[in-house]
Amino acid sequence: MNKILKKRLISLAAVLGIVLFSGGVILGKLYMESRKLSPVETREIAAGVYAVKDSYVNLFLMKTDDTYIAFDAGNDAKKVRQELLKLKIDPKNVAAVFLTHSDPDHVAACILFSNARIFLPKAEEPMVNGQISRFLFMKNKLALPHELLEDNQIINISGLKIKGISTPGHTPGSMSFLVNGTHLFTGDTMGIKNGEVTQFNDLFNMDTRRQRKSITRLAALPGVDYIFTGHYGFVDLPEIFFRNWKE
Ligand SMILES: [Zn+2]
Predict the structure, then answer these.
(1) Cα–Cα distance list, 190 to 168, 211, 241 (Å)
(2) N or C: which end of the chain has fewer CB within 10 A?
(3) What stretch of H or E contains 143?
(4) Four-residue CA torsion sign, 41, 110, 197, 191
(5) Cα–Cα distance, 41 to 199 (Å, whole number)
(6) Whole-prediction pTM
(7) 149 and 97 in contact (C-beta within 8 Å)?
């Protein structure tokens, strides 16, 4: 083997080694973080509020007089259908789905809710129309017709008043939803540890500094009774939840 070829082979092996090692470290970190996720089992968790567990993610439903409103849709439509069956909820009876952001684990099962109006935060639209990538070349998708929501916009459906509150950070257009002033659905804007707020994991956030500002915005909301998260369950004592929060 000539000397130049040998040198090139050694460099190639070194680069491959670094790539494989870094990939292994990232995968290991992702695995450790995914083990900390703690979604709620499928059940009624508060009066008229249902958690639906789709492996590592929750979507939530609120009952109205005659329909249900969903906050996020879940990942696997087949699994979400099975879980809804346990609650005796027909997906056709869901009148609206409010998406906190466009990641597939919150959006992909939208297809199940064939009668629902689908709402996406306006600032999240570039994530699904190809303008912004989620990670390297990976892009999020939302192939169904949807309506766009502005910050502070209020939608009234069957007696529920749903207010969109822009909480960017996890993704540029992430939004939380405050229902009737008391029930707050935050998606991946925060986690919960020992009953208190944490930022969502850095590895999955597009801008953690913005997310921390968003959490501060939510901490200032008066009158909230319940806070629901995408991957860490919920709390019903918000005054304790934010007591040690520092941006
Ligand atoms: Zn998520």
Answers:
(1) 11, 8, 11
(2) N
(3) none
(4) positive
(5) 22
(6) 0.89
(7) no
Find the 75 Cα to ligand 1 centroid distance in Å: 9
Task: Identify the DSSP state of 83.
Answer: H
pLDDT for 45 equals 95
pLDDT, position 197: 94
CA dihedral 100, 104, 109, 113 (to 10 degrees): 40
**The residue to which tokens 């083997």 are assigned:** 1
Query: Alpha carbon of 121 to those of 8, 37, 53, 164: distances in Å?
Result: 50, 25, 23, 8
φ, ψ dihedrals at 141, nearest 5°: -135, 150
CA of 106 to the centre of ligand 1 (A): 6
pLDDT at 89: 96
List the shell of residues around ion ligand 1, using CB closer than 5 Å. Answer: 105, 188, 230
List the domain boundaries for the chain.
Answer: 1-36, 40-241
In total, the chain counts a number of residues equal to 247
Other beta carbons less than 10 A from residue 125's beta carbon: 17
- What is the C-alpha to C-alpha distance for residues 214 and 139, in angstroms, rounded to an integer? 23
Instruction: Round to whole Å and give the CA distance between 181 and 96.
Output: 18
Could you give the CA distance from residue 177 to residue 153 in angstroms, rounded to a whole number?
Answer: 10
CA of 200 to the centre of ligand 1 (A): 10
- Helix, strand or coil for residue 28? helix
**Superfamily assignment of 40-241 in CATH?**
Ribonuclease Z/Hydroxyacylglutathione hydrolase-like (3.60.15.10)
